[in-house]
Amino acid sequence: MGASFAKQHNVNMSSSENKESKKDAKQGQSSKGSSARPLSIEGPSTSSNVNQTPLQPLSNQPRQPTNLQGLLKYAMDAAQSEDMENKSVYPLDEEKKTFLNAALSSLTVNVIEELHKALQILSNVVNLRADDDSSEYENTLERMADFVDNIDIANDFYKIGGFSVFQPCLNSSHSNIRWRIADIIAELAQNNPFCQDKLLEAGVFPVLLSMIDTDPSEQARIKALYAVSCIVRGHPASLKYMNANDGYSVLLRAMQSPVEKLQIKSAFLLSSLCSKNDSNDVKSTLIKMGFIEQAAGLLGRMNLQPAVREQLLRVLSGMVNDNFLPALQECRRSQLCLRSTLEQLLTELKPMENQDEIDMCSDLLDKVFSEPDMNQER
To answer: What segment(s) does the record annotate as region Disordered (predicted)?
Structure first.
């Protein structure tokens, strides 16, 4: 028995040693590889992939689907192509076709139907009191915003009576409703002349301007300015609404507000309007309202935000574009100290960070304060 036990013990020891030696061998190989590339992760190395040729696209593949309706056809074409390669064709039976069609239909959204449901809910917003829960209406507006950024759907939204909810939502006591509907108006108006016309007819323009000036919610003021900007840009007919509703004064007050986003967006809109062709009427209006004086004063502030400073320089550049004489004369008024302000900015701005602003300052100095032009004017 002792001999048998000893024999068995030797066999176990031998087996254990063999395992340990194999383990050491593997670790040795691993350590050699790790010394060359200590942190790399490599795929299996085989002789077949040493000179592997580049992958080539498979022929006769079905076209990739671009929408849910094309998914069923894609799946059927792919299955048929695979079956043909395998020399065995198993046609899709009617039961499977019905199942797949039902599955795809459940994933397809009827946008107009969803908009109708949303309008039905929002028709009750007029009854919402200040202390009521507005979450249902907010969620409805968020779903609506997902659809109306498409121009065709935006136009359909008007045709199904969607614009009727604007006034009640804009006048809601809940700021979360006010800013969301202003955001939707902006999406509807952006690059969409049809909706721009209809929004002006709907009478939302003066309401939005009033929100920019007086709304207690900062977010509502920002979104209202965004909506006004989307209605006005690329739509010359809206400029008469700006004049009729004192819109330029609203923009100037927004530019001087403590809200940085309002400053930037209002200055950006003004620069956009001044840079258009045939914008002399806009420039003349701004000059009469003292815009250049205000811009010169703002540029001289020590704590002016860089983004606001850049937009102000853009507006001034637009004002003096094409050597518009009334703007040049106003900029040269010694009381404004614009020349010294621009020269001071050139000493403070860094070329690596503010090259555009440096270029605008230099351009303004050349256009406004060049000696030949000033002598000619005299």
So the answer is: 1-66
